[in-house]
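We emphasize that the prediction below concerns an isolated chain of 233 residues; any contacts that depend on oligomerization or on bound cofactors are therefore not represented. The input was used exactly as deposited, without trimming of termini.
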Amino acid sequence: MLVAPLPSNESERLKSLADHNLLDTLPEEVYDDITRLAAEICGTPIAAINLIADNHQWPKSAHEQEEGSVGIPVREYLTGSRDNSFCAHTILNPNEALIVPDARYDERFADNPFTLGDPQLIFYAGVPVKDAEGRALGSLCVIDSRPRELSEHKLESLKALAKLVNTHFQLRRTKLELEKKQRQVTAAQPILQTMIQTIGSMQSTNNSDEIKQVNSLLESAKSLQHVLDETPA
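Result of the prediction step, given as a token string:
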């Protein structure tokens, strides 16, 4: 078995994964719909959105057409060690899909514990799912316990679904960033009010230069207050 090397941008990739706040979160319908469609389109019993963390993999969504129908320990595999992960190989090429028609004859996976298991993980197809900067955070993958090929039409459909995952990832991060900025704005407002009051009390000075400086500071503070007031809650 060949353990996937770390991507050259691993530290930035892990930071981006953390910024998206996806790991160990509750199921979300939008991602579950995507994995269900992926399994149906590709005709596989299993599909997942699998994220690659520092030393393990974790499924944001996993769909099994019929639970236990193929016998693959889906949750055990999808939450297992990164060393055994097919998806850890997928993220090495963010712009390419990884297709493994029969893992028993692929040197990277031939002696993987899940390929050797009973039942076996034989077929795998994964498309990287990425952040806005193009860093692969994991993959949208389909899995089967028997060898198969994936037609060009099905592969293109899988890629389209992966792009949809990318879009939702980006929307998620944007939402988190806006929420953070709003918290900062809320925290700044009482400080700014105190600043305005302090500057106002300084206007009693008779020094013309100091008066100009105070008035300039006051106008700047009021402008900032206006921006804060206009920031959506």
